[in-house]
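Annex B.
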Amino acid sequence: MQNNLTKVQYFYGLRPGEVITLDLHHEHTLVARGASVWVTRAGDPRDYWLAPGQRLAVEPGRRYWVSSEEAAEAELEREVAHRFPLLRVLRKWLAGRRAAREANSCTAAA
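DUF2917 domain-containing protein: predicted structure tokens.
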């Protein structure tokens, strides 16, 4: 079975004490990289500390604030359906052209 998902990733470098704001329109997963990352979200009384490699599901339509006490990286990742059917059609067409060219070169050599 062919996997029809593509992973989209966004990386944010965080300097110590810097706060970045994220307003997202799709579901993502936030992953801490390099150091622990502090996350708070609008409407949620809790804060989240993510150790490197830990994940937090990020809901669309909410504002998130992300910070770190050390230099760190926050990665947002999301799996989406392939959006490039034209590319797939082009690959099939090129494969057909290649096969036809090889068939013609074999008959010409004989």
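The CA atoms of residues 7 and 79 lie 4 Å apart. The chain has a mean pLDDT of 80. Further annotation is deferred to the next reporting cycle.
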